[in-house]
Request: fold
Amino acid sequence: MVSIGVYARMMKHAEAALACLSVDPAVMLMVVGILMFFITFCGCVGSLRENICLLQTFCVCLTVIFMLQLVAGVLGFVFADKARNKVTEMINKAIIHYREDIDLQNLIDFGQKEFGCCGGVTFTDWSQNMYFDCKQSNPSRERCSVPFSCCIMPPDKVVINTMCGQGMQELEYTEAVKFIHANGCIDKLVDWIHSNLFLLGGIALGLAIPQLVGILLSQILINQIKDQIELQNYNVKHRSDPWR
Reply:
């Protein structure tokens, strides 16, 4: 994970990603990778060497991460409207920088094809992009168009027509829905979350259980080590000298 982050930071231009996100994904990968290495190092070496300091560090780190995940989940539920607005803002920024990064472009196309949507709130959001802008002064051949990933593709279509979204923003919604997915990705994403709550809950539980088990086992091991140390100290203190 660290090496992937280093590669992405050195080889890729992060301007488009930074414009859409608050944190550079490459830096985030490096930080998460280093943090995972540190935590697993403390847990493995601490248990092998029976080092209480490392085990306590491992336990505290897992507890902090678990609490941060719990707080993030609660805040996301309580402030759902603010979270929705933040996601909308991120998608709009991604639309603006659609042509500036091939990875960002592929990610947006994948999301729109997967969810059957177009734009953030509606398909006309693509006017925010300089290439798809509907202004008469726009010299782009893609003026007033939408990306091909917005188009409704027949299941038997082998060759993709990348210009299928030509001029779609000039159509009314009732006409556009015949050719493209005119609904925005925000509503589609919310609907997907609502319809997959059990799946998301299972994923959250699957992430939480190993952390709780790690916290519990580390505390049990710490207590066992302390008991052994106390027993050894007691034996040394009360050991009788057979030559006396």
The first helix runs from residue 2 to 11.
